[in-house]
Amino acid sequence: MSRPLLELADLVRTAGVAFIWRSRQWIGWTHIKVLLAIARCRTAALGGHVDACTRCGHRLISYNSCRNRHCPKGQANARDRWLEARRQELLPTRYVHVVFTLPHELAPLALQNKKILYNLLLQTSAEALLEVARDPKHLGAEIGFFSVLHTWNQKLEHHPHAHCVVPAGGLSLDHSRWVSSHARFFLPIPVLRKIFRRKFVIALQHNFRQGKLGFHGTLKPLAHPKAFSAWLRTLYRHHWHVYSKRPFGGAEQALCYLGRYTHRVAISNHRLVAFTNNQVTFR
Prior knowledge:
Blueprint (H helix, E strand, L loop, with lengths): L7 H15 L6 H12 L7 E5 L6 E5 L12 H12 L7 E7 L5 H6 L1 H21 L6 E2 L3 E7 L5 E10 L1 E4 L5 E3 L8 H21 L15 H11 L5 E5 L5 H9 L12 E5 L2 E4 L1
Antiparallel strand pairs: 1-2, 3-6, 3-9, 4-7, 5-6, 7-8, 10-11
Helix pairs in contact: 1-2, 3-8, 5-6, 6-7
């Protein structure tokens, strides 16, 4: 892949100080550290090394990466190391891809309580998969899987969802044999959706009672117990999207797919098109 004409670091160096100043009411040191890391990445500020040809004497300077996980540069090596470690855990069987998505009504609360709600998304989707798979009416087996959290879509809109890459089968409940799922069917989506919704709403209510949720701006009225309980009941009327794709051909294909969703930032340098008149254009 050719080197992009425009990089995120260029935008930060040009407009970063003004952005920080305009955002001073909400921006924190964590955000500023990310911007500083991106601006210094692959520059002399982080040091580097010199490679020299022993024949012609040609010298090439390579600067170090910032290694910040929000930076679009320098993620390939970390991703490859992580995937190689996961490759040791894969099984020689078919794999399926299941996606759990929060309804958009939860998005404002998720933005104000990221750690709690994103953890609940991963936890309750995993519990739903495990519970339905154990049920003898469905698969009747103990399963394992990878889960990867994504919080945006291709248009960079807030869209919390979890990608789960799951072996198409599992160990029997007595751990004596392997139980394979149907060639074209893994677990019933309506059942997964119902259990996922129930578990998430119950967990959300538990966190509210413990005073762990924050409510700001337009969400302030939900801080009152009666208002929050009424709002929780409306979540049962909304569509909770659970989607299962057709099975992969095998473990290696599953891992390659999973690799697209690890160590990935929201917008890569190659998506940037132009920066003119304080406007950024990207694909």
